[in-house]
Design goal:
Strand order of the largest sheet: 3-2-1-4-6-5
CATH superfamily of the largest domain: HUPs
Structural class: alpha/beta
Radius of gyration: 23 Å
Oligomer: single chain
CATH architecture of the largest domain: 3-Layer(aba) Sandwich
CATH class of the largest domain: Alpha Beta
Number of domains: 2
Largest sheet: 6 strands, mixed
Number of helices: 12
């Protein structure tokens, strides 16, 4: 039964521990309702502190209101506090990203107010497969092919996905046996977005070649994540070996230990350096890493290249520097 598998998974992987405080994101759909039911069933024995969070984007009229009512009723049935936000995301090409930003900012706010340390979302094995396929189509590296992780960080919070090893069909069977009430998002049936097209068209097509494609992609992601972690550890050690100085708006490294590394590790070292200097990897892409690498290995012994957020990469002999410009970097 799913409950016993769920208990075993969260215990063995350390995803949820006794006494944890969780914000549980619940949309009103089958996945999040199953997640809420499972967590509610283990909550008392594990002494969990739980708050249900729901965002009504008001994008589907009465459907959105029905989602909200389902969540409110479910939380009340389990005697769990519920927080509901009604906010419409920005219209346009990045509607989904806007909705996600609203949702996670709200989760962080709730966690702060209730003094909770984790946020639980209902991503499952089928979501994992869709994510990996989306990243493959876009030409992702190992990190993208590792897909969604069971545990990651979101600001100062732990973001957990306790349903990741379980398929959509398992959740549907569980919901049926438990007679859970949930709503169906009609927009998921349309192929307006890339992810919906992958779910509704690409995955069914791939199942003709491999009926267990979802499980196969999930297993692949676990192996790739393990490799990615190992390479990351090597890159972290190599970065520390090369680091000379870091401070506000400036980071410098020695070229000598960097140039001897394999290309894949060199790229990771530069990504680590940029992340340490700029605070994030936002907008740093593979073309920019290619340019940095060429300057690093160049026989000319010097060069520079402008990077996102007014950062600039410079090489002077054996010194590699990331510097934040006061204005638009020297044109």
């Amino acid at each position: 039964m799913l409950l016993s598998k769920f208990k075993k998974h969260i215990s063995e992987e350390g995803i949820i521990a006794d006494g944890d405080g969780l914000v549980v994101g619940v949309s009103g759909g089958i996945d999040s309702i199953v997640l809420l039911d499972l967590i509610a069933r283990v909550a008392k024995k594990m002494s969990l502190k739980i708050v249900v969070a729901h965002v009504n984007y008001n994008l589907r009229g009465r459907e959105s209101d029905r989602d909200e009512n389902i969540v409110f009723e479910a939380a009340n049935e389990y005697s769990i506090p519920v927080e509901i936000l009604r906010k419409k995301p920005r219209e346009g090409k990045n509607l989904q990203n806007s909705a996600r930003e609203i949702r996670f900012k709200y989760y962080q706010d709730i966690a702060s107010r209730y003094n909770l340390e984790s946020v639980a979302t209902a991503h499952h094995m089928d979501d994992q497969a869709e994510t990996i396929l989306l990243h493959m189509i876009r030409g992702s590296g190992l990190r993208g092919l590792a897909g969604i992780q069971s545990v990651s960080k979101m600001g100062g919070l732990k973001l957990i996905r306790p349903l990741l090893p379980f398929s959509k069909s398992e959740l549907e069977e569980y919901a049926k046996k438990r007679k859970l009430k949930y709503e169906v998002d009609s927009t998921n049936l349309k192929s307006d977005y890339s992810r919906n097209s992958i779910r509704n068209e690409l995955v069914p097509a791939l199942k003709k070649f491999n009926p267990r494609i979802v499980e196969s992609l999930h297993s692949m992601s676990i192996r790739i994540a393990s490799d990615d972690d190992a390479l990351g550890m090597v890159a972290d050690e190599s970065f520390e070996d090369a680091l000379i100085k870091e401070g506000k708006g400036l980071l410098s490294m020695s070229r000598a230990p960097v140039q001897l590394l394999p290309k894949g590790i060199r790229y990771r070292v530069m990504m680590k350096a940029f992340e340490r200097a700029a605070g994030s990897l936002k907008d740093l892409n593979s073309d920019q890493l290619d340019k940095i690498d060429r300057i690093t290995l160049s026989k000319e012994g010097k060069g520079s290249y402008r990077l996102p957020s007014r950062w600039k990469f410079e090489r002077k002999g054996e010194l590699l520097t990331l510097r934040r410009c006061k204005t638009k970097c020297d044109r």
